[in-house]
Amino acid sequence: MSAPIAAPGVKTRIALIAHDKKKDDMIGLARDYLDFLRACALSATGTTGRRLIDELGLTVDCKLSGPFGGDLQIGSLLVEGRIDCVIFLRDPMTPQPHEPDINALVRACDVHNVACATNLASAHLALSQMRAAHRLVEL
User: Fold this and answer.
1) Which of 94, 122, 131, 136 could covalently link to 117 via disulfide, CB atoms 3.0 to 4.6 Å apart?
2) How far is CA 37 from the centre of its chain?
3) What is the pLDDT of residue 3?
4) Which residues pair with 136 in a beta bridge?
5) pLDDT (0 to 100) of residue 139
6) Separation between Cα atoms, residue 102 and residue 105, nearest integer Å
7) The pTM is what?
8) Residue 32 a catalytic site member
């Protein structure tokens, strides 16, 4: 089971996913934690990843767009123990054609005890705690 790691020389592995109406929120969130995220190994689904690269200069392993299997690709990394935290800014007000994939990813987080933030409040909590742990290790 995976858990956020803060150890010298170990990068925290974070998956970043945002539905269309939440992509601007993801960019703002990433901007708030930019220095910390630069020290992490980041994976993201399609457009979210490209925007993080283009707008913030982050290094991101881009997967497919969610509806084309990107959520499943992130889920595969997660069950292999290669993701420490998922930040998934979901749009609960818009039906998603790949809802079963979304539910499977969130369920995989529960099964494998991986932190999963699905809104800005929980994302700020998760990232601030990981950043604080990272800073302690650097001391």
Assistant:
1) 122
2) 10
3) 46
4) none
5) 66
6) 5
7) 0.92
8) no
Which tokens go with 89? 């800014």
- Tell me how far apart the alpha carbons of residues 59 and 119 are, in angstroms, rounded to a whole number: 23
Amino acid identity at 104? A
Q: Are 105 and 43 in contact (CB under 8 A)?
A: no
The letter for the amino acid at 32 is: D
What pLDDT, on the 0 to 100 scale, is given for residue 6? 63
Q: Which of 32, 54, 61, 71 is catalytic?
A: 71
CA dist list (Å): 64 to 24, 35, 48, 73: 19, 25, 10, 8
Amino acid at 127: L
SS3 29: helix
In single-letter form, the type of residue at position 37 comes to L
Between residues 97 and 28, the one the model is more confident about: 28
Residue 14 · residue 42 · CB < 8 Å: yes
User: Which distant-in-sequence residues (6+ apart) come within 8 Å of 71 by Cβ?
Assistant: 17, 45, 98, 101, 102, 104, 105
Q: What pLDDT score does 121 carry?
A: 98
pLDDT of 116:
97
Largest CA distance in the chain: 46
Higher pLDDT, 105 or 137: 105
